[in-house]
């Protein structure tokens, strides 16, 4: 099982990036998919998570307060992929972003997740 994150890069403040995380090795259509980030010298923190629904639409989402209204998480189960659209980026969004997956709830604690991607670096310049 592998989660492959991509889409990071260098962007100016106010700009946008879209991160992708594609899973392989198993189907994650009935798993919670989340994004975390870790800035230098700081602990890994929850950014956004998306649940699943049997109908394939209207999945529940959760965001950390600092990204509400700027970031949007979405998923494409046919591609086994979750996305994080990041708009109005700020220098404080600079971090390595990790995708994660697990069952049932959109947990905000990293230790609740069993599956992790390798991380993709997002750098926002002022």
Mean pLDDT: 95
Major sheet characteristics: 7 strands, mixed
Shape: globular
Beta strands, count = 11
Radius of gyration: 14 Å
Q: Strand share of the residues? A: over 45%
Oligomer: single chain
Number of helices: 0
As a percent range, the share of helical residues equals under 10%
CA distance, first residue to last residue: 37 Å
> Which structural class do the helices and strands define?
mainly beta
Q: Low-confidence stretches at least 5 residues in length (pLDDT < 50)?
A: none
Helix-strand topology string = EEEEEEEEEEE
Care to describe what's here?
The protein is globular and about 40 Å long. It has 126 residues and is mainly β. It is built from no helices and 11 strands. A hairpin with a 4-residue loop joins strand 7 and strand 8. The protein is 0% helix and 48% strand. Strands 2, 4, 5, 6, 9, 10 and 11 form a 7-stranded mixed β-sheet that branches. It has a 4-stranded antiparallel β-sheet with strand order 1-3-8-7, with no helix packed on it.
């Amino acid at each position: 099982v592998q989660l492959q994150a991509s889409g990071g890069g260098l962007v100016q403040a106010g700009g946008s990036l879209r991160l992708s995380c594609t899973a392989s090795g198993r189907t994650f259509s009935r798993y919670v998919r989340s994004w975390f980030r870790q800035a230098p010298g700081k602990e890994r923190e929850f950014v956004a998570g998306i649940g699943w629904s049997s109908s394939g639409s209207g999945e529940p989402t959760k965001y950390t307060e600092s990204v509400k209204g700027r970031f949007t998480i979405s998923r494409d189960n046919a591609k086994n992929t979750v996305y994080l659209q990041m708009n109005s980026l700020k220098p404080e969004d600079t971090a390595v972003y990790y995708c994660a997956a697990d069952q049932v709830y959109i947990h905000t604690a990293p230790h609740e997740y069993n599956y992790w991607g390798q991380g993709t670096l997002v750098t926002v310049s002022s």
